[in-house]
Amino acid sequence: MICQLPSRLRSLVEHVEQLATDEEITQCLEANQIIRIASDGGAIPGRASYGWIIQIGSTEIAKGKGPTHGNDPRSFRAEGYGMASSLLYLRLLQRQFDFQRERRTTNIIICDNQGLLTRIEEAVEWTYTTPNVTLRAEWDIESVILNLYQELEINFTFMHVKSHQDDETTTANLSLESRLNVEADRLATAYMQEDLTRRPVVTLFPTAKVQPIIQEASVTRRIPQAIRFAAGMKDMEEYCWTVTHGLNKHLTTSIGKRTERATHITAHNAATSLRCATATSQWERRFIAARQNTHRSVPDAGMNQNRKTITSNAAQSPV
Fold first, then answer.
1. In terms of CB atoms within 10 Å, which of 13, 163, 193, 314 comes out highest?
2. How many CB atoms lie within 10 A of CB 163?
3. Fold topology of 1-307
4. Model confidence over 180-206: pLDDT tens digits?
5. Where are the alpha helices (DSSP H) in the chain?
6. Nearest by Cα to 84 from 8, 165, 197
7. Is 0.85 topped by the overall pTM?
8. Helix ranges, 32-157 (H)
9. What is the rounded average pLDDT of the residues 6-28?
10. Residue 21, CA distances (Å) to 26, 42, 52, 62, 139 in order
11. CB-CB contact of 296 with 128 (8 Å)
């Protein structure tokens, strides 16, 4: 099943180990036992990794781990990779064993990153996504999670657990959900130690549509700010060169000359800011246009929960 995935998604499940036999998996699914998915991620400067485990009832089904792509990825992105990878593998199991879950059944997604849980839990409830939401941090991996959640059509409860509970309590005395989180953390740590490769360029996921790359590194957060900085860098370099190489010559000038120069620099900065703003505005419009179709297939992760809803005859995205 993995080999049939698009190459851009295959990387998320390259390091997966199935722990149960097909017969055991079938028995667990037929008994409608609770599906628990625990994922975790960790980051150090320049690198990050993730780990996850899926358990149905009391049977461990599969576990996975892998790298987090991005230029200096943070823990939020690593946690997102773990959640996306685990949901993708569950989706593969769903295709293989052709199972569904009744709406009333209980299933749990376990994570120790409250920010990620809150964002996904809110996003799956919305029916429309504004194009501007694609500019927010780590949207590319969030769009994968939302798309898989929609395809699975399985109800999940989002559970937050405290991280590293095994530092204070023996694993045997922890709750099942906490023990699964500890195992996911162990897998993420193990991969971090196994693979020392930096991956500054992100795999372009189908749901992300477009991914900006500046100076051989993907931009996954603070996208507008990164565009403005890159757009104004040339002018900044020219200005710094002028100031540095012209400093000695101007040290002996009169106060009036220095005042005239300061006025010139102020006008130069204003012109630079205007050019940067214009370039940024044009770039952002093209970027949003490239991603705008995502709101028709992904549940809304809207920018303002309190906004008024306008009803029209246009069909809204299914959740």
1. 13
2. 17
3. Nucleotidyltransferase; domain 5 (3.30.420)
4. 999 999 999 999 999 999 999 999 999
5. 7-10, 22-30, 75-97, 114-123, 139-152, 176-194, 223-250, 255-291
6. 8
7. no
8. 75-97, 114-123, 139-152
9. 95
10. 9, 30, 18, 10, 35
11. no
